[in-house]
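hi! just following up on the protien thing from before. the input was this:
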Amino acid sequence: MSSGTVIETARIHASRIEALTWARLNAILEGHDLNNVEIDDQMAISICGGIIQGMNNLIYDSHTPTIPGLPVGSADLYQPQLKKHVTVSANLVKAHIDRKRLMAKKSTQTTNYYVQGENARVNVNSTDQSVNIVMKSTEESSVRSASV
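and the predicted 3d structure came back as:
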């Protein structure tokens, strides 16, 4: 086994660490968005710090994989290669946070329709060509006409 294998293994693990880091950041931002929590400057810095710290913990807690036949000294190559291939930086994270928090929110318009009466319906941007047939008993008709 060559040092090339160690470098490739470090590259693959770095890709996994980056994916976990971005997923964690997006989950945090989505949670704030869903709960209508505004992210101010101080909160953005705190989120960024937490994300970078979590990523660094993943890097430093990564140990050289146990690979049979690994040449002597190759294990020392793994950690620096892992750090080299993780390209997420505090600036990238902060820019992502700022893009999400400063982007104009999409406004949603709600229209409420209150419809009442027999065979009531609402057509929005469509034409209703249906026919309803209502059958009433003679008792129901006479009760209704008596009350009017």
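The chain has a mean pLDDT of 83.
The CA atoms of residues 14 and 86 lie 5 Å apart.
cheers
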